[in-house]
Amino acid sequence: IFSGFSYTWLSLTPMVAEWLSHVTRKYRGA
Predict the structure, then answer these.
(1) Cα gap 8→20, rounded to integer Å
(2) At CA 11, angle to CA 19 and CA 4, rounded to 5?
(3) Which of these, 8, 30, 28, lies nearest to 16 by C-alpha position?
(4) pLDDT for 8
(5) How far is Cα 30 from Cα 28, in angstroms, rounded to an integer?
(6) What pLDDT, on the 0 to 100 scale, is given for residue 19?
(7) How far is the C-alpha of 13 from the C-alpha of 29, rounded, in Å?
(8) What is the Cα–Cα distance from 17 to 20, expressed in whole angstroms?
(9) How many Å apart are CA 19 and CA 4, to the nearest integer?
(10) Which superkingdom does the taxonomy of this entry point to (predicted)?
(11) Does the pTM exceed 0.85?
């Protein structure tokens, strides 16, 4: 279970980082 969770987390992390950078950019622009 933990290994599967870690694999999923590692797969989602790049997406979350990209989303966070996008949101931060939006707030800075506003």
Answers:
(1) 18
(2) 140
(3) 8
(4) 85
(5) 5
(6) 96
(7) 24
(8) 5
(9) 23
(10) Eukaryota
(11) no
Identify the pLDDT of residue 14.
Answer: 92
Q: What is the pLDDT at residue 23? A: 95
Question: Identity (one letter) of the amino acid at 7?
Answer: Y
* Rounded CA separation 13/15 (Å): 5
First to last CA, the chain: 42
pLDDT in tens, the chain (30 residues): 578 888 888 889 999 999 999 999 998 886
Taking CA atoms, 12 is separated from 9, 25, 27, in Å, by 5, 20, 23
